[in-house]
Amino acid sequence: MGSRPSGEYTYERREFMTSAGLAAAALAAAGHTPSARGYPANETVNIACIGPGGRGQQLLHVLKKMPAVRVAAVCDIWDVHLQMGKELADPKAFVTKNYRAILDRKDIDGVLITTPNHWHVPMTIDACAAGKDVYVEKPLTLDLSEGDAVLRAEKEYNRVVQVGMQQRSTPQFQKAYEIVKSGVLGKIHKVHLTWNRNRDMRPKGPLGIDPKTVDWKQFLGRVKDQPFDEYRFRNHRWFWDFGGGILTDLAVHFIDVANWFLDLDYPAMATSAGDQFLMKGVWELPDTIQTLYRHPKQGAQVYFEGTWVSARNGAMLEFMGTEATLYLDRGRYEIYPERGRSMPYSELVLAKGPRGLDNYKTPLGDNVGDREHLTNWIDCIRRRTKPNTPAEAGVRAAAAAHLGNIAYRTGKVAEWRS
């Protein structure tokens, strides 16, 4: 990744790099060399899902309907989700609580990693070393130290790694990219990103999860040992051991779009203001945050706001040009000319519903973008080509989110050191 930000927290990479090396050595000893071969269009691609929870189940519903794709294995450390994943997989699918057992199988071509964030990079590296292609949910990294390792694994093992930031495969975002690149919006110096919700996430009572149904030690992995906590288990994104809150869970989606449209590199600096207005004493991370990024080389500022206490503006992006502003959400784009300009208002609406929803549904019941993004991944597995959202995009978007969190935690401007 090159340069590093000031105030960076340092984490040890050795354990999962060693794991990757052991996986590669085991494959070689067994006579399995990771292959870069393509697949004929009619040959079945066998996919395994690691972590078939809520997001994993959404993607499995799409995969199971795709031609020449078979959900051949599922893995989860919680009995409840393991059973749900089994019901969405092929009737003869391999079922296990140990993800390494999936990576050892010769019949698995690719893995869908929809686990908690702290497992994304270790599992992606192990899967690449085992010769599997990867679809991994965002954020790709848990912290800044993980970026280099996952990029090396993707390159060294010549694997197709698609990060689950599906905007790059969604039609209105692809068309909007062309609009930005055409120059009709004028010069773009400001980008406004929001992901606002109004939802009380405080516990209403016991969740009733039987600890005996959870392999808690395996869930923790490399995270410090701690007693089983059912709320933390089901809401892991809001605790520092397992996630980075609003910035890594939500903002990364739209940070990636800004990076893509404007060819942005890592931000030169970030400053954040965060508070716990609703979730104090429950979450470790803020329920409301505002972060400003500066990209002086590109002459751009990117401003993100996110909260759980008001849904005003919802989830949206605005690229503010000198000639017009481009509004985007997951269901549409709209172009608003500046006052006095002759450009007409225009729009492309792909889905029904009010502006700024978290997700929009297709006629098939899928989330807009999921089918397109998974199709792109499967096509790239067949053709051995680069996917729409490769690991480098995932690392860059997550790095900006981490920089924003460092600014929040330190109360200082976090700068990317050259």
Give a topology summary:
Layout: H1 14-29, E1 45-50, H2 54-63, E2 69-75, H3 79-88, E3 94-96, H4 99-103, E4 110-113, H5 120-129, E5 133-137, H6 147-156, E6 161-164, H7 171-182, E7 188-196, H8 216-220, H9 230-234, H10 245-262, E8 269-275, E9 288-295, E10 300-307, E11 315-321, E12 324-329, E13 332-337, E14 346-349, H11 370-383, H12 391-410, E15 414-415
Parallel strand pairs: 1-2, 1-4, 2-3, 4-5, 5-6, 7-10
Antiparallel strand pairs: 7-11, 8-9, 8-15, 9-10, 11-12, 12-13, 13-14
Description:
- The chain has helices at residues 14-29, 54-63, 79-88, 99-103, 120-129, 147-156, 171-182, 216-220, 230-234, 245-262, 370-383, 391-410, and strands at 45-50, 69-75, 94-96, 110-113, 133-137, 161-164, 188-196, 269-275, 288-295, 300-307, 315-321, 324-329, 332-337, 346-349, 414-415.
- With 418 residues, it is α/β, with parallel strands linked by helices.
- It has 2 domains: 14-167, 3-Layer(aba) Sandwich (Rossmann fold); 170-364 and 391-415, Dihydrodipicolinate Reductase, domain 2 (2-Layer Sandwich).
- The strands form 2 sheets. The chain has a 9-stranded mixed β-sheet. It has a 6-stranded parallel β-sheet with strand order 3-2-1-4-5-6, with helices on both faces.
- It is globular, with a radius of gyration of 21 Å.
- The N and C termini lie close together (11 Å).
